[in-house]
Write a structure and sequence with these properties.
By secondary structure, this protein is mainly α. The chain is built from 12 helices and 3 strands, in the order H-E-E-E-H-H-H-H-H-H-H-H-H-H-H. The protein binds coenzyme A (COA). Coenzyme A binds near residues 153, 154, 156, 206 and 211.
Length: about 270
């Protein structure tokens, strides 16, 4: 057996980095087979995200639904850890990219991850319905299995909003998309059934939240669960950028979690 290292051939290097996303030659840049000069002006930013991630262009109606989900998630104020972290980081003498990356790095299973988990939950209900259960049976099973592991169903409830203001407009858009044949509506029905079962007999409701409503959209549009998180991260990056930039213009250095006015040295 030949164990000596040898120089890789150009073909081996090209194969190693083979991708169907982009093709470059001097003077040529194609994204998913479309010359970039044709994309510019013909594709919106959200349609371009879809194109790169999925390999095909969305219809204008599909792009509009995805855009609604991504608009809805852009920001939730500085009490969200990702935003607070970006605002603190940008005062530490780093570049705006470091501040953004720090904020994005805080987006995990319990901060921004509920959308991915909710897509998984809804997809499981839809799969069991396809397997022959009726919607209520499928939902009851999946909800019971989830609650045996965790008290909280992803995509429902909110610490701050009694009813998430982003829920109704997003679901109205999905309803319209179902009516117009843009999406099938099975994940939407599953989400509403989860909400109905979850709230049976409760006096204080636990309504669907932003992560639930956007999970419905991502699932209806056929995005795999991890992409729901990826798309959320892209969306929330807008708020992270805006907050980091605003903070950077306010002249504070080394902003910490407490106002300096209440720290002992300032009393
Ligand atoms: C966001 C969240 C932490 C807010 O929780 P909270 O309002 O502080 O809720 P509490 O822990 O005080 O629970 C209040 C009641 O609602 C219930 N509840 C709240 N969210 C629930 C959920 N997602 N699934 C099931 N029950 C839920 C609790 O079991 C509790 O019931 P009880 O009154 O019978 O004891 C919680 O709803 C949650 O973890 N949701 C799932 C994760 C998620 O979607 N996160 C994204 C938020 S935008």
């Amino acid at each position: 057996m030949d164990t000596e290292p040898r120089d890789a051939t150009a073909g081996e290097v090209a194969d190693w980095w083979a991708t169907s996303i982009s093709r470059m030659e001097p003077g040529v840049l194609e994204l998913r087979g479309i010359p970039v000069q044709e994309l510019i002006g013909s594709h919106g930013f959200v349609a371009t995200i879809w194109l790169l991630v999925r390999g095909s262009s969305p219809t204008p109606q599909e792009a509009a639904l995805l855009e609604a989900a991504m608009v809805a998630s852009v920001d939730h104020g500085p009490q969200a850890p990702s935003i607070a972290i970006a605002r603190m980081t940008v005062t530490c003498g780093v570049g705006i990219n470091n501040a953004m990356a720090s904020g994005v790095n805080a987006l995990g299973d319990s901060h921004g991850g509920a959308g991915q988990q909710c897509v998984e939950l809804l997809s499981e209900i839809v799969a069991r319905e396809s397997g022959g259960l009726d919607l209520t049976e499928a939902t009851t099973q999946v909800v019971a299995e989830h609650r045996a592991r965790s008290r909280y169903l992803p995509g429902f409830g909110h610490r701050f909003h009694p009813v998430d203001p982003r829920r109704a407009p997003l679901l109205a858009l999905v309803d319209a998309a179902v009516e117009n044949g843009v999406v099938a509506g099975r994940h939407l029905r599953a989400a509403r059934e989860v909400e109905r079962l979850l709230n049976e007999g409760r006096t204080k409701p636990v309504p669907m939240n932003i992560d639930g409503a956007t999970a419905v959209i991502y699932a209806e549009l056929g995005f795999a669960p991890p992409l729901a998180r990826g798309l959320f991260v892209l969306s929330r990056s807008v708020g992270i950028l805006a907050h980091a930039w605003e903070e950077s213009t306010q002249g504070r250095r080394n902003k910490g979690p407490m106002p300096t006015s209440i720290l002992p040295a300032h009393r």
